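Lab notes, practical 5.
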Amino acid sequence: MKTRIAMLAAAGALSILASPLAANAQVSVNINVPGLVMTAPPPPRYEPLPPPRGGFVWVPGRWAWDGRAYAWHAGGWQPARAGYVYAPGRWIEDRGGWRWNDGDWRREARREARREREWEEDRRHDRYERDHRHGHDRGDFCPPGQAKKGNC
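Output from the prediction step:
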């Protein structure tokens, strides 16, 4: 009888151990988007503006991401471009991270506004000419005697 009780106790213990336990699963997905940094950049460093150089534009320094940490890149001079203004680069918050937007050259606003104004004047002039043309250019000219014959 003792063996029978021992066998039942062993069977009970085995059944408890064999019962399924709640499954724990944890999935971590890390998608690396090229050019997107998850850590915000530090505030810009103060750089004293050097004296102006003729024919050059000062490009301020910036924080650059090297894959592990931010590193400061000092500012420098770039050759000026006639009719253009340099727009410095900046960090932009994007999709939960930060992305560097390079600086570029943009047309001067004065020239762009003048070009828009000239274009609008040309368009207005063309519209006036189209509505106030006389004679053969209007498209509704009929040579004398042709209207009576039904040719126009």
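Observations recorded by the TA: DSSP finds two helices and nine strands in the chain. Residues 113 and 119 are 10 Å apart (CA to CA).
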